[in-house]
Amino acid sequence: GQQLNQSPQSMFIQEGEDVSMNCTSSSIFNTWLWYKQDPGEGPVLLIALYKAGELTSNGRLTAQFGITRKDSFLNISASIPSDVGIYFCAGPSNTGNQFYFGTGTSLTVIP
Amino acid sequence: EPEVTQTPSHQVTQMGQEVILRCVPISNHLYFYWYRQILGQKVEFLVSFYNNEISEKSEIFDDQFSVERPDGSNFTLKIRSTKLEDSAMYFCASSVTGGSPLHFGNGTRLTVT
């Protein structure tokens, strides 16, 4: 299946700092999704992107659909302790019958 | 807000036993999925289901696995003869259409001993 690589693999930051993470693919996607997973729970959709160059915000979160359509970025401003979790990007298969998930970025926020 | 519900939240079974994991997708969603996540690893696709048939499956979804929509609300994953390596979190998801964002349940933690 598709390989979606996320970086960094993990981040340890102070509360109040901004966070940036990215996701790259070897193939072009027409949709990018960003999810957050809390321990013991299912992934929760944060942001959906549908157009190259699109910049979309959801509160303190901002995600961008890369111009090349092979990457996407997620930024979190002014991090708080509840931002802790694993962030996954996802992109659809050509058939639209599944989404491939990235390797994940684990975020730890130190109060 | 509507949500995907999964039962049980935790299932412990002995190797070789059959298990059935249950899901109730969001009511107006037409596409259903099972994913799994081995502890600390990424979310892996198992199978997608639309119009009462499998639309796509991964190499993980071998003959030991099957899915069913026995009625208008439930969507089940059956593992016929569990192996130790089947131990994982199993997530059900649904979407309005193919290619639209997936909405996940909170998962069933399967432990095979």
Description of the structure:
The complex is a heterodimer of chains A (about 110) and B (about 110). Chain A has about 110 residues and is mostly beta strands. Chain A has no helices and 11 strands. Chain A has strands spanning about 5, 10-15, 20-25, 30-35, 45-50, 55-60, 60-65, 70-75, 85-90, 100, 105-110. The mean pLDDT of chain A is about 95. Helices cover about 0% and strands about 50% of the residues of chain B. Chain B is globular and about 35 Å long. Chain B starts with a strand and ends with a strand. The model of chain B has no long low-confidence stretch (mean pLDDT about 95). The interface of A and B includes residues 31, 35, 42, 102 and 103 of A.
Q: Helix and strand succession of chain A?
A: EEEEEEEEEEE
Give the overall average pLDDT of chain B: 95
* Portion of residues within helices of chain B: under 10%
Q: What general form of chain A does the structure show?
A: globular
Instruction: Give a count of the beta strands of chain B, DSSP E runs of length 2 or more.
Output: 11
Q: Compute the average pLDDT of chain A.
A: 95
State the major sheet of chain A. Answer: 6 strands, mixed
What shape does the CA trace of chain B take?
Answer: globular
Task: Look at the helices and sheets of chain A and give the structural class.
Answer: mainly beta
